[in-house]
Write a structure and sequence with these properties.
Elements: H1 7-21, H2 34-40, E1 44-48, E2 56-61, E3 65-73, E4 78-86, E5 90-94, H3 103-122, H4 124-129, E6 134-138, H5 145-162, H6 165-173, H7 185-198, H8 202-211
Parallel strand pairs: 1-5
Antiparallel strand pairs: 2-5, 2-6, 3-4
Helix pairs in contact: 1-5, 3-5, 7-8
Length: about 230
């Protein structure tokens, strides 16, 4: 059974999550600590490599399960695959087997974490009783209509958590009048600086502004949801 959520309801749920996590996030733009956010909803975080090609960004575990993960063997200087057990309430964030991350990748993790937190918070019934007890976010579109609906909810929920509506409106009010209307370097700079304050990448910030009706959509450029 899929619970239909209106955009207003998702905004309310996200505000509630922020209020419980850090009420100041509803007053001003603040980056989010993904570990604290997960802890606040009683979730665990596991960082590991789910796919060598990074086609799975993250996963939310609702029932105890075992998943194959890639592991770096320092002694053999090679990669192997091992089964790893995960308990319910675990959020898995996929990381390539590299010793460092770029800032863009870290901010992408923030979105993935908020996305999985929304799944954990609102979609337990579906994944416990209808699906296999785990949700994996993949770059491939093999989902059913029901899962696509849950994905849209989690995407919107993640945007609402990371960029609370009232704070976004407040930020836009402080911008020079009309700066978001036309595609100019000034607009891109304003969006980039705003994204930095919220701790997100450029594209999620841009889509959030479009979704809230604060700047015109760019259909001719094929703007994709929540991608960067």
């Amino acid at each position: 059974m899929i619970v239909q959520l209106l955009p207003e309801e998702i905004e309310y749920i996200a505000d509630e999550i922020n209020s419980n996590y850090n009420p100041e996030r509803l007053l001003k733009p603040l980056p989010i600590d993904i570990y604290d956010l997960a802890d606040n909803i009683d979730a665990n975080i596991s960082i590991c490599s789910l796919r060598h090609d990074h086609t799975i960004k993250g996963a939310a575990v609702f029932e105890k399960c075992s998943i194959p993960v890639y592991v770096w063997d320092e002694e053999k200087r090679s990669v192997s695959i091992e089964e790893r057990e995960f308990k319910p309430g675990t959020i898995i964030i996929d990381h390539p087997l590299l010793p460092f991350q770029t800032l863009k990748e870290k901010l992408s993790d923030n979105f993935t974490m908020a996305h999985e937190c929304f799944h954990i918070k609102k979609h337990g019934y579906y994944y416990k009783n209808i699906n296999a007890g785990i949700h994996q976010d993949t770059s491939f579109n093999f989902s059913s209509a029901q899962e696509n609906e849950l994905e849209q909810q989690a995407n919107r929920g993640a945007a609402c958590i990371l960029m609370p509506r009232r704070v976004v409106f407040s930020e836009v009010e402080a911008l020079p009048e009309g700066v978001l209307i036309k595609d100019t370097p000034e607009r891109n700079y304003a969006i980039e600086k705003m994204a930095e304050r919220f701790g997100v990448n450029f594209s999620p910030m841009k889509f959030r502004l479009i979704n809230l009706g604060l700047m015109p959509p760019e259909k001719e450029k094929g703007l994709k949801l929540f991608k960067d």
